[in-house]
Amino acid sequence: MKKRIIKAAAVYGVVAAVLLGYYLFVRLTGLGIPCVVHKFTGFSCPGCGNSRALIALLHLDFAGAVRYNLFIFPELLFAVYVAAVVTLRYVKTGVYSVAMPHEWALWIFLLMLVGWTVVRNILGV
Questions:
Q1: Euclidean distance between CA atoms 85 and 31, whole angstroms
Q2: In this structure, is the dihedral angle defined by the CA atoms of residues 92, 93, 95 and 97, taken in order, positive or negative?
Q3: How far apart are CA 69 and CA 67, in angstroms?
Q4: What does residue 80 show for φ and ψ, rounded to 5 degrees?
Q5: What long-range pairs does 18-22 form, CB within 8 A, spacing at least 24?
Q6: pLDDT digits (tens, 9 = 90+) for 44-60
Q7: CB under 8 Å to 106, separation ≥6 — which residues?
Q8: Total number of domains constituting the chain
């Protein structure tokens, strides 16, 4: 179990390093990941503005994060939930699986995601 904890910590360390690298790249160049959905359709996807919203959150600019993408908060909560479920399962059993034990949480999140996409494109949020 101790080895699995160390492996999980290493994975999170790599993820943190990649995110830090992306943050520095965006801050230094002003370039971010473009939204392919927006480029081809003109509509905003549920994740449009996430990079800017995350950078605003790193600077504790909550109002800025909301302006860039209000849905960043449910997305972050769901990501933390999934990461916790996957990590705990791996540490306890040694099985890596992203299968959700609480399927209702996934369905609620997906309904919110679709609702947010519709609202932001109708209202231009």
A1: 33
A2: negative
A3: 6
A4: -65, -40
A5: 22/51
A6: 888 888 988 999 999 99
A7: 100
A8: 1
pLDDT tens track for 48-93: 889 889 999 999 999 999 999 999 999 999 999 999 999 999 999 9
- What pLDDT sits at residue 5? 95
Cβ 76 vs Cβ 66: under 8 Å: no
Name the percent of the chain in helix, strand, coil, to the closest 5. Answer: 75, 0, 25
With tokens 């679709």, the residue in question is 114
- What domain range is 69 assigned to? 2-123
Backbone angles phi, psi at 9, to 5 degrees: -65, -40
* Distance separating alpha carbons of residues 56 and 38, to the nearest angstrom: 21
Helix (H, G, I), strand (E, B) or coil at 50: helix
Name the pTM for this structure: 0.82
From the list 57, 47, 14, 49, the residue with the least C-alpha distance to 32 is 49
Phi, psi of 95 (to 5 degrees): -95, 125
Q: Do residues 93 and 21 lie in contact, with contact meaning Cβ atoms separated by under 8 Å?
A: no
Which amino acid type is present at position 108?
A: I
